[in-house]
Amino acid sequence: MPIYLGFDSSTQSLSAIVIEVAEGGERRVLFERSLRFDEDLPAYGTRNGVLAGGDPLVAHSSPLMWAEALDRMMGIIATESGLDLTRLAAISGSGQQHGSVYLGADAQKALSRLDPRRELAGQIAPGLSRPTAPIWMDSSTSRQCREIAEAVGGDEELARISGSRAFERFTGPQIRKFFQEEPDAYGRTRRIHLVSSFLATLLAGRDAPIDRGDGAGMNLMDLRAGDWSDVALEATAPGLSSKLPPLADAWSIVGPLAPYWVERYGFPAGVKVVAWSGDNPCSLIGVGLVRRGRLAISLGTSDTLFGFMPELRVDPTGQGHVFGSPTGHFMSLICFKNGSLARERVRDAAGYDWDGFSAALRRTPAGNRGRILLPWFEPEITPHVAEPGERRYRLDPSDAAANVRAVVEAQMLSMSLHSKWMEVEVDTIYATGGAARNREILQVMSDVHDAEVFQLEVGNSACLGAALRAFHADEVARGRRTPWEEITRGFVEPRAGSRIAPEPSNVALYRELKPIYEACERHAQGTGPDPEPRLARFEGEYGS
Ligand code: ADP
Ligand code: XUL
Questions:
Q1: Nearest-ligand number for the alpha carbon of 9
Q2: pTM score > 0.90 for this model?
Q3: Could you tell me the pLDDT band of residue 544, with boundaries at 50, 70 and 90?
């Protein structure tokens, strides 16, 4: 009976899940483990997975840290999991999206000669043409976004081609900045990988392709053609086409596991390495969203809201994205930067732990008596806020409990407002990510969206999705056309008793509050009048 391994190299950690798939029978998670970058790999000095730096708009992480985490996790699986590795059929993975890794001429050589007695990170270090990797939290490329959009014929045209207008964190603008600021190092770069394809490359010991799901997060791929867009490449940096790996289906087999892993840890030769994808496309599979009509909300380091999209439709407001789905279709997504770290910030300012945070949500009234927080502690992606700075309306910063409610309500109201373009009649939401274990947060989600919310058996849906993709790719490689519902069956069902139902009186209240929250967003961005009279009226009606 085969087993499959999925990795998730996320912003703050590397996780692994091993699943067992009995022919026509039971399915189980056999192993689950995480390494947290800050605590478990302290030598790299990251905070929340990000390297320290002077510019608040810049966010880089360390490719060597990701490699070391992978090396350690492979060791843990081989020596501590108790698994019979001879059953391991395929491995895939999920990576935080948009982040890029730059390899020079020596990388290929280093990869083909890895010494199994030595650690991985030290051996690939000389192969990097850029020591750090810009990640999705970076918002330092506004200028490059403008330049690329202009060269392509405008943001709308770029969105039509690539599924998104130019976004600061997307790989194309990041590559352009590197080319402009470090032209020599750019010139020495032979390969630019995403986090996902870089880690697949390390496992296979050879250059891995970029899967189209994650490739869509670069502002470089023509979504309809499923290939690199010449216009976008030219607008981004010279000679780029030769530096990018090919694009491939999410179920492509990169090759067998490199001899390094076989000799270093005793993995069997011939285990298939399947192309990795982005964390959101993998999550789409890990929550079983292979059909239209349901939505998922991931409350991880970023908060994302996403759904399956059988036919391509781009957000006319320019705030959302279309990515590739690992099924070969599309997915719609909006992303918020002020997610878990914003909740943590408010929690810490209040001096609470998560239990205290939940208790504050329980004892404060829905609607918060019209007290509003715009939680733009960091530059925000949705809506686009370049200059960070939180804003408060009628909200005393020292009222700890009200600030807790305010941050969660703001996040949920904002998700609801900015996802309208997806045109999904949402009645069911699958909640995932680290904060999805918090049922008080999910109650606000349920009330604001007027939808039933479910928690899932496996909390890390990106990692589970990667393991399920490994299974799917293995089936395809064996010539079997197993439907996705059958691939995901037994793993993605909601946890028994996890259903959270909307509270009708709160649903009505949030329906009133939503446009007022929108007015606060507009006011804060200088495009609308002072919402104070509307907030006062709201308090009059719902304040008691
Ligand atoms: P990543 O984006 O790195 O995959 P995770 O999905 O693992 O992140 O989520 C990590 C986040 O989960 C932490 O930053 C923390 O804020 C949040 N979290 C963990 N437990 C709780 C809880 N009980 N309530 C709210 N948030 C939580
Ligand atoms: C999605 C996005 C984040 C990252 C990190 O567009 O930027 O969700 O994938 O999780």
A1: 1
A2: yes
A3: low
